[in-house]
Amino acid sequence: MTADGSRPPLLAPSADLVRRLSEIVGPEHALVDPDQQLPYLREMRDVYFGKSPLVLRPANVEQVSRILAMCNEARVAVVPQAGNTGLVGGQVPWERGDEVVLSISRLNKVRNVDAAGYNMTVEAGLTLAACQAEADKVGRFFPLSLPSEGSCQIGGNMGTNAGGVAVLAYGNTRQLIMGLEVVLADGRIVPGLKALKKDNTGYDLRDLFIGSEGTLGIITAAVLKLFPKPAEKATAFIGLPRLDAALDLFTLAQDTSLTNLTAFEFLSREGLEMLCRNFPTNRIPMEERYPWYILLEISGARADGQAGREMEAILTAAAEAGTISDAVIAASLSQAADFWKLRELMPEAQKPEGGSAKHDVSVPIANLPQFIERAHVIVERICPGARPVPFGHFGDGNIHYNISQPVGADRAQFTKTGFDINAAIHDLVHELRGSISAEHGIGRSKRDELPRFKSAVELELMRGIKSVFDPNGILNPGKVI
After folding, report:
1. Phi, psi angle pair for 347, to nearest 5°
2. What distance in Å separates the CA atoms of residue 302 and residue 300, rounded to the nearest whole number?
3. Three-class DSSP category at 153
4. Where would I find the beta strands (DSSP E) of 184-246?
5. Closest Cα partner for 376 from 257, 291, 278, 306?
6. DSSP 8-state code for residue 14
7. What is the pTM (predicted TM-score) of this model?
8. What is the pLDDT of residue 260?
9. Cα(249)–Cα(310) distance, integer angstroms
10. Of 323, 319, 320, 327, nearest to 239 (Cα)?
11. Dihedral angle sign, alpha carbons of residues 15, 65, 114, 169
């Protein structure tokens, strides 16, 4: 700290530092050529495009430790990056070009699999799909599931506390991690790879790192919690007469299901029609059109047909009560995959429609229909003709409230209007006691909004934690806080 208590300014790496850092990982893994760097500097939606003098790809935790110790001593910023699939800009460097990017992609080993103990220890660069496959090899199940699971990495999932479609049954990433190995800003290694369900020995440091978006330390390995593999699944696509009927259906499903209600996703008619227009090989699996749809999935521990019987009981009771208008139960794994494809393609379906204002928010489940109704009014007031395309995880209150530009509108102008929409939607979320970031994190896109919704005490505590873990402020500066 300087005499007035502020941090000394961060510096661009010198030519000598670039040379020494490159020696740690080897020249083939120290990227200085702009063309080779490109995949690490541009995020997947092309909203943010940064610059860097050096992209490093260390092979192990020891190399990460040496890199951070060297950068901390030189007061050079480091941007940790996993699969670069984040949606809030937290994983890409700033445009000024003085930050080192540290990719964990080569830290991709499976260190241990304990089928009997229902856990496995993996390095942070392993893709989510590979984590799922390793669990499956020993007859176990790792439930975190995201559309980007083939390319996102478990370190990034932990850094953002990713959610996904199985949160209802298994929880966010935070609930799926038993222990962590983390490298601090000064290079010290926190050896927390414990496979314990009970460890009541002081402050839970693990939970501080999960969701910190690389601002407190770099996660290099983790102990993942595994589960029994579901023996059977029943999947249904359901048409609703109105969105508030989803609350009644959700309550009925929760009360009826004796096995495992694993997914309760919602989609709008407008969104599905947009998807089928832009991806014409897909179709809504029922002839008549309804305002809202639910994708409901139940998993069973035994292959005895119980999941299917429960699904039929739920849908029969819901139809008799007038809660649902129509439903189709998947007759095969292929048909169930087709149902899920509609949900997974929803973000992509908006791209051909022009500009989009996106929101990853959550509200109490009982407030979700009210939120949608009021949000639609707000959007029409600010930008007449804009097209809301809400979808997401009804069962945990997480709405991806996206708005496509009006047909024929100027994209650049709509992008400017989108900032006004964002602010108004976030105000509504706050009024309904929700969160402006449900599962994507804060990164840089929501950093300036955060002080409007976090109390002064909470922000003071967050800054205090940051100063303890990273006193020179080298880790992902300017992100989150």
Report:
1. -60, -40
2. 5
3. strand
4. 189-192, 218-225, 227-228, 232-240
5. 291
6. P
7. 0.94
8. 85
9. 13
10. 327
11. negative
